[in-house]
Amino acid sequence: MKRNSRSPLQLDPRPLYVRAEETLGRLIDSVSPGERLPTEPQLAKQLKISRATLREAMRLFEERGRIARKPGVGTFVLAPHLIIESGLEVLESIDTLAHRLGLQTRMVDLSVTECDADSHMAEALGVASGSPVIVIARTIHAGDLPAAYLTDTLPAGIVTQTELENFSGSVLDLLITRGTPPLGRSRTSITAESADGLLARRLGLQRGTPLLHFEAVLYAQDGRAIDYSHSHFTPGYFKFHVVRKVGK
């Protein structure tokens, strides 16, 4: 009797991308964290799928934080990590969320720049175009890996030079601890955004990796906009939820 030489993937009736994801997941689970996976051509041949299907499956695991692809070096398996989960009803910093889980955070690549507000910054902060602002950009690591890239733009005078010299990573926590000006509300837009060259380098990802992007304006109780921020979150590290009432 003639033996069937087709792979389990070919015999499975489910969609190919679902089967490829499941099979690749088992392979990743069998590899110790820190070890490198075979090359794409080797993996595609081993799994008997096209490289396009393999790349899609690998993208999903990269978004979940299970693998890291380093251009020119290879693809490495990452250890499972804690998921930082939060509701969006209360504004809290990444440091606060991570520390609640017992996850250590640290700031790297801090950049503080004084410049004139462009039209977009000026509109968000409610100031005249060309007004002096301070831009604070940095990467936040949770554990050993980059979890987010944050950029805050503040009108000049909101934070002092001494506060910037002792800055620990969270503008929100700095303002809350200081107590002035009293904070009121934050308006946030949430979108998906592909990692450009800067974000890919800062977060250790491939260009084009989908990121969760929060664009927010923080207001004082007197209605002044005091912080215009962009937060880009690494795939697989965060889970946000919203409690909603049923409409009538």
Strands, helices and their partners?
Blueprint: H1 8-11, H2 16-29, H3 40-47, H4 51-63, E1 67-70, E2 74-77, E3 84-87, H5 94-100, E4 105-116, H6 119-125, E5 132-142, E6 145-155, H7 161-165, H8 171-178, E7 183-194, H9 197-203, E8 210-220, E9 225-233, E10 238-241
Parallel strand pairs: 3-10
Antiparallel strand pairs: 1-2, 4-5, 5-6, 6-9, 7-8, 8-9
Write structural notes for this entry:
The chain has 2 domains: 8-77, Arc Repressor Mutant, subunit A, CATH 1.10.10.10; 84-241, Chorismate lyase-like (Chorismate lyase, 3-Layer(aba) Sandwich), CATH 3.40.1410.10. Helices cover 29% and strands 33% of the residues. It is built from 9 helices and 10 strands. The chain has helices at 8-11, 16-29, 40-47, 51-63, 94-100, 119-125, 161-165, 171-178, 197-203, and strands spanning 67-70, 74-77, 84-87, 105-116, 132-142, 145-155, 183-194, 210-220, 225-233, 238-241. The strands form 3 sheets. The chain has a 6-stranded antiparallel β-sheet with strand order 4-5-6-9-8-7. The chain has a two-stranded antiparallel ribbon with strand order 1-2. Strands 3-10 form a two-stranded parallel ribbon. Helix 2 packs across helix 4. It is elongated.
